[in-house]
Amino acid sequence: MIISAEILEDLEKLDPSTRGIFIKLFREIEKAIGEVVTRKDFIELREEIKALTKAVQELIEAQKRTDERIKELAEAQKQTEEKVRELTEKIKELAEAQRHTDEKIKELAEAQKLTEENLSRLVEEHKKTREQLGGLPPVREYAKQKGVAVYFSYQFDI
User: What is the DSSP letter of 147?
Assistant: First the structure.
């Protein structure tokens, strides 16, 4: 209780029922004072409200920056999706070109095989022709024995 010694001395001089009423009154006053906001409490509360207001303003600004950044990222995502779509189309075109190239290579390989077969056949036929002719010197000798003149095409002016 916040009753001073002086007041307690004065209360002792009163009759017990009056003294009881004063003691109850002092207790109620003490209780009410305990529930009253002091000026110091009010100033502290005001400072806390200022700090909270500042923090809320900072959060609002941060949210604005975040919203702007999200907007920028959404635009970048949109551009990325467009580039991916373009690249997908290019890949499809390249795959088709590769398929076409593979077909041409297959055709060329088949043509190369036919060419090699024809060349082998020509080489064999050439060998046979050389064997049959036996070379030019025997032909010249045979023509000379028979009295036939032999002329080569390069000897003529054409």
Answer: T
Residue whose C-alpha is closest to residue 7's, from 24, 22, 18, 21: 22
What would the pLDDT profile of 114-152 be if each residue is shown by its tens digit? Answer: 999 999 999 999 888 877 766 566 777 888 899 998 887
> What is the DSSP secondary structure assignment for residue 156, as one 8-state letter?
S
User: How far is 78 from 75, CA to CA, in rounded Å?
Assistant: 5
Mapped onto helix, strand or coil, the DSSP state of residue 26 is helix
CA 103/CA 90 separation, integer angstroms: 20
Higher pLDDT pick, 27 / 115? 115
> Distance between CA atoms of 91 and 63, rounded to whole angstroms?
41
Angstrom distances, CA of residue 74 to CA of 70, 103, 143: 6, 44, 98
- In the chain, what percentage of residues exceed pLDDT 70? 95
Q: Give the contacts of 19 (CB within 8 A, at least 6 positions apart).
A: 11, 12
The pLDDT, as a whole number, for residue 112 is 96
* Full DSSP string of 102-126: HHHHHHHHHHHHHHHHHHHHHHHHH
* Residue 134 φ/ψ, nearest 5 degrees: 65, 10
State the distance between the two ends of the chain, measured CA to CA, in whole angstroms.
149
